[in-house]
């Protein structure tokens, strides 16, 4: 496995995330991990925007954060489905996708 992982969120959990990332890198040395402890409030927007793959929080998400996250996931799923339908249609027509 290789690639990049970014964690943006709780500064309270920063030390734990750093320890986790060090252990993860021992198993997967080709994965680069960046941990940014900016506060729990920064986790949901970073996940929604796609600037982070992990959003550690030292509190529960607020209802409006949950709603925003659900909407972002729904929109992403819709985009994926449209791309999938277009890809299948082009393949059925014998065209490159």
Polypeptide structure, described:
The protein is of the alpha+beta class. The protein folds into two domains: about 1-60, D-Maltodextrin-Binding Protein, domain 2; about 60-95. It has three helices and two strands, in the order βαβαα. The protein has a two-stranded parallel sheet with strand order 1-2. α1 (about 15-25) links the parallel β1 (about 5-10) and β2. α2 (about 45-50) runs parallel beside α3 (about 65-90). The mean pLDDT is about 90.
Keywords for this structure?
about 100 residues, alpha+beta, D-Maltodextrin-Binding Protein, domain 2, 2 domains, 2 strands, about 55% helix, flat
What's the helix and strand layout?
Layout (H helix, E strand, L loop, with lengths): L2 E7 L4 H14 L3 E7 L5 H7 L13 H30 L5
Parallel strand pairs: 1-2
Domain module tally:
2
Low-pLDDT residue intervals, each spanning 5 or more residues: none
What's the CATH architecture name of the largest domain? 3-Layer(aba) Sandwich
Dominant shape: flat
Distance between the termini: 27 Å
The CATH topology of the largest domain, please?
D-Maltodextrin-Binding Protein, domain 2
Task: Sketch the major β-sheet.
Answer: 2 strands, parallel
Number of contiguous helices: 3
Strand order of the largest sheet: 1-2
Structural class: alpha+beta
């Amino acid at each position: 496995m290789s690639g990049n992982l970014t964690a943006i969120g709780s500064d309270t959990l920063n030390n734990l995330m750093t320890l986790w990332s060090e252990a993860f890198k021992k198993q997967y040395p080709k994965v680069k991990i960046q941990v940014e402890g900016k506060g729990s409030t920064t986790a949901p927007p970073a996940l929604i925007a796609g600037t982070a793959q992990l959003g550690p929080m030292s509190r529960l998400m607020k209802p409006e954060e949950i709603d925003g996250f659900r909407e972002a996931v729904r929109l992403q799923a819709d985009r994926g489905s449209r791309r999938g339908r277009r890809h299948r249609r082009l393949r059925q027509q014998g065209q490159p996708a």
